[in-house]
Design brief:
With about 450 residues, the protein is of the alpha/beta class. It has 16 helices and 18 strands. The chain has one domain: Glycosidases (TIM Barrel, Alpha-Beta Barrel), CATH 3.20.20.80. Helices cover about 40% and strands about 15% of the residues. α4 runs parallel beside α6, α13 packs parallel to α15 and α15 runs parallel beside α16. The longest helix is centred in the N-terminal third of the chain and has 44 residues. The protein is globular, with a radius of gyration of 33 Å.
Length: about 450
């Protein structure tokens, strides 16, 4: 443009120059491509004839979709050894595994429905009113108990085949409790995640413990029970294949038979550190490590070996569940990490890092606010919070110990300030046991969850 403005090149001469240059470049390019093709063709012929002699022992083969591996070529077999040649099948490409379904992070506003709430959820009318109230208060998730005291809350062929359940829980109208709860909760846009509360725990007098004594583990002195908040309990051996099979089938039965949104396991899907001294586990440890199990239950290697076994089981359980329903939320509600790992062999942080857990709710039942804040500010909670839906379990009261709303509210606010979700333990204590009136407590919950935060929409995505 500048040359034309200065008069160094007329418009007609410019057109001629450009046209002539283009024709010359086109002829040169054609000659160059013809020469290049001739060279490439000749090179191909030479390489084709020489390659078997130059590279007699290497040939490419492809395994999978995107990985090439050098594989030794088969050498000629002498005639006198031809009868020894093996007729091996041709390796087939390995189909890639489908990518795991990523469960989006969402705010948890949940509450557990325990066996103490049985009167409410066994009555369809009471249940409907309760769920409607939770919706109006902008809750979005319920965790109803389905595995407690060695019994399931729904008709179970697995439990009957194991000879552990001579009865079936039913509602007042003969309804399936779990099916009715899911149907009514979905009408109110509430997610339903059945809660396998007892995990590997069972009362020593239950049919489960008495029918399958070989499924139980024990302490070093031979004692096979411990005292917990649920009373005296025995512990199923989480390392025993029959125990693992039983619990897996029980979970898969619920997953297959109900339109649930997730499943949850708590701090009882674990084992107290003093257990694991049964014959089966001791033999397994000796077989794998060539050593006897340490007498000290706190021995780091002994703790790690048992924790790893539980982690491996949880990984297989998660895989089995996801094969049935890939979108199902795999939820865990343990104690804080140091206690969970050292005292209960429950490496939930490892589970999250391995992609086993979709939702985590850490139980932080504290009376002092400073202690509560310290627990919910731990680095492992911050780490998990960046990966999956994460919440804090807050105690809203017990039958013999009510919790004032001021404490509940202050803990909930501290939790929300850190961007964490909340689940309350448990439904009846939300406004049934407190020193305040029902209406006053409900007003505080309404203010706590001032606007809706639904999760129901995500279950169909």
């Amino acid at each position: 443009m500048k040359l034309m403005q200065r008069g160094f090149m007329s418009q007609e001469w410019q057109k001629y120059f450009v046209s002539n240059s283009f024709r010359q470049m086109s002829r040169s390019r054609k000659r160059f491509l013809s020469l290049l093709f001739a060279i490439a063709f000749a090179t191909t012929l030479v390489v084709h004839n020489l390659l078997p002699d130059v590279l007699p022992d290497v040939m490419p083969t492809f395994w999978g979709n995107d990985q090439a591996i050098a594989k030794p070529a088969a050498k000629p077999i002498p005639k006198n050894n031809q009868q020894k040649q093996l007729n091996l099948p041709t390796p087939q490409p390995i189909a890639p595994s489908p990518p795991p379904v990523v469960i989006p992070r969402q705010e948890i506003r949940g509450v557990w429905l325990t066996s103490n709430d049985f009167t409410m959820f066994s009555d369809r009318t009471q249940l409907g009113k309760a769920l409607q109230q939770l919706k109006q208060l902008n809750f979005n998730t319920i965790y109803p108990v389905v595995w407690n005291s060695g019994y399931v809350m729904y008709p179970s062929a697995v439990a009957q085949n194991a000879g552990i359940q001579p009865f079936v829980y039913r509602g007042n109208e003969g309804q399936d409790l779990v099916a009715d709860m899911i149907a009514q909760a979905h009408q109110h846009n509430l997610l339903v995640m059945p809660w396998f509360e007892f995990g590997f725990m069972a009362p020593p007098t239950s049919e489960l413990a008495t029918t399958h004594p070989d499924w139980l583990t024990q302490e070093r002195d031979g004692d096979n029970t411990s005292v917990t908040a649920a009373g005296e309990v025995a512990w199923l051996n989480p390392f025993h294949p029959e125990v693992q099979k039983f619990l897996t089938e029980l979970v898969l039965e619920a997953v297959s038979n109900y339109d649930l949104d997730g499943i949850q396991f708590d701090d009882h899907t674990s084992l107290p550190k003093t257990f694991g001294y049964d014959r089966y586990t001791l033999n397994l440890y000796r077989q794998e490590t060539k050593q006897n199990a340490p007498a000290d239950p706190n021995d780091p290697d002994w703790v790690r070996w048992r924790a790893n076994k539980i982690s491996a089981f949880m990984g297989r359980l998660n895989k089995a569940v996801k094969q049935r329903k890939p979108n199902l939320i795999f939820s865990v509600s343990p104690n804080y990490y140091e206690f969970a790992y050292k005292q209960q062999l429950q490496d939930w942080l490892g589970w999250v890092r391995q992609g086993i857990v979709d939702e985590l709710i850490v139980q932080v039942y504290r009376s002092e606010l400073d202690d509560f804040r310290a627990q919910i500010s731990r680095p492992e909670i911050a780490e998990v919070q960046n990966k999956i839906s994460t919440g804090i379990a807050i105690l809203s009261g017990l039958r013999n110990s009510n919790v004032p709303m001021s404490r509940i509210y202050s803990q909930a606010i501290a939790t929300q300030e850190r961007g964490l979700g909340i689940s309350f333990f448990y439904y009846k204590s939300l406004w049934g046991y407190g020193p305040e009136s029902v209406s006053d407590r409900q007003k505080d919950f309404q203010y706590l969850f001032r606007s809706p935060s639904p999760r129901f929409v995500a279950r169909n995505q």
